[in-house]
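Example 9 (inverse folding). The structure is encoded as follows.
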C-alpha cells in the first residue's frame, strides 16, 4: 500500500513524529510513504515560519536509517501556492530537493478556500480558485500533483462540490495542460473523515481528467493524526475504478509511474524508487 499525503511535527498542525508514522506504516502493511509537510508563504498563514528544511531532512535521514529496510520513505512537501506567493515559493525552492511535491491552492485573497465553501455557493467558492490553479499548471513546474482539488467538499457537502458543467471549459483547459506536462492529482481521502461520501477529487472529476488525457493520481489520507494515517486508501482505489481508472501512481526514478490498482493495495512496490 502507498500513502502519499501525511503531516508530521514539521507541519504546524500535526504533533505526530515521523517515526510514529513509520511504525504505524509497517504495522499496517504500507510499503511506501511520502511525508508531505506544509511549506507556506501566504501572509494569511500565521504559522508559516514553522517549517525548517534542515530539520525535515534530518528526520528523513533518521527514519530511513531506522526503517528503510521495511519502508520506502520519500522526502516530500505540500507547497501552498497562489499567484501572490509564486515568487516567494520559487525563491524558497532554490537548492532544495524533494522526491515528491504536492502543490495546493489553500488561500485565495487571504481567504481559506475550504472555509469559503461554508458561506458561498460552489460557483463563488471556486471562481478565482480555478484561475489560480490554471495559473499554477500553466506557469509552474515544481510539483508532481495538485492537492485536494475540490477542497471545499471537506467543509460543506453542497457548496464544496465543484460544478463541472459550469466550469467545463476551464476544467478542460486545466486538465489538458496537466496531462501534457505529466502532472496528476492527489486523491485525498480526508473528506471521507469529514462526512463526505467522496474523496477529493470525486469520480466525476477523475473521469473528466482521464478523458482529457490525465494519467497520474497519487493516493493519501492527509493525516495530521496517527489514527488518520493511511485510512480509506481502499475507498480511493474503488473510486478510481468507478471512474474508469486501472492505475494509480507513485514516484520511481524521479517521476510519476503508473501502478495497477491491485498492486497499490499489495505488498510489493512495482519499481524500487531512487530517492534524493
Ligand atoms: Zn492541504
Ligand atoms: Zn495536507
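The amino acid assigned to each position is listed next.
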Amino acid at each position: 500500500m502507498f500513502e502519499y499525503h501525511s503531516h508530521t511535527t514539521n507541519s504546524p498542525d500535526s504533533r505526530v513524529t515521523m517515526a510514529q508514522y513509520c511504525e504505524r506504516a509497517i504495522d499496517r502493511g504500507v510499503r511506501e510513504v511520502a511525508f508531505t509537510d506544509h511549506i507556506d508563504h501566504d501572509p494569511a498563514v500565521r504559522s508559516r515560519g514553522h517549517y525548517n528544511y534542515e530539520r525535515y531532512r534530518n528526520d528523513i535521514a533518521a527514519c530511513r536509517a531506522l526503517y528503510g529496510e521495511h519502508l520506502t520513505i520519500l522526502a516530500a512537501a505540500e507547497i501552498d501556492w497562489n499567484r501572490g506567493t509564486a515568487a516567494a515559493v520559487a525563491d524558497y525552492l532554490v537548492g532544495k530537493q524533494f522526491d515528491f511535491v504536492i502543490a495546493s491552492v489553500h488561500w485565495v485573497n487571504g481567504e481559506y478556500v475550504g472555509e469559503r465553501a461554508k458561506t458561498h455557493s460552489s460557483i463563488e467558492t471556486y471562481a478565482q480558485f480555478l484561475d489560480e490553479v490554471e495559473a499554477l499548471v500553466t506557469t509552474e513546474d515544481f510539483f508532481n500533483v495538485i492537492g485536494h482539488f475540490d477542497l471545499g467538499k471537506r467543509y460543506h457537502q453542497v457548496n464544496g462540490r465543484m460544478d463541472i458543467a459550469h466550469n467545463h471549459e476551464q476544467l478542460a483547459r486545466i486538465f489538458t495542460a496537466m496531462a501534457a506536462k505529466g502532472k496528476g492529482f492527489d486523491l485525498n481521502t480526508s473528506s471521507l473523515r469529514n462526512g463526505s461520501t467522496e474523496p477529493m477529487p470525486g469520480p466525476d472529476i477523475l473521469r473528466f481528467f482521464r478523458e482529457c488525457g490525465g494519467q497520474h493520481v497519487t493516493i493519501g489520507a492527509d493525516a495530521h493524526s496517527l489514527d488518520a494515517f493511511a485510512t480509506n486508501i481502499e475507498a480511493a482505489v474503488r473510486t478510481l475504478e468507478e471512474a474508469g481508472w486501472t492505475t494509480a501512481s507513485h514516484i520511481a526514478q524521479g517521476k510519476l509511474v503508473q501502478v495497477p490498482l491491485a498492486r497499490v493495495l499489495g505488498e510489493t512496490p512495482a519499481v524500487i524508487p531512487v530517492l534524493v
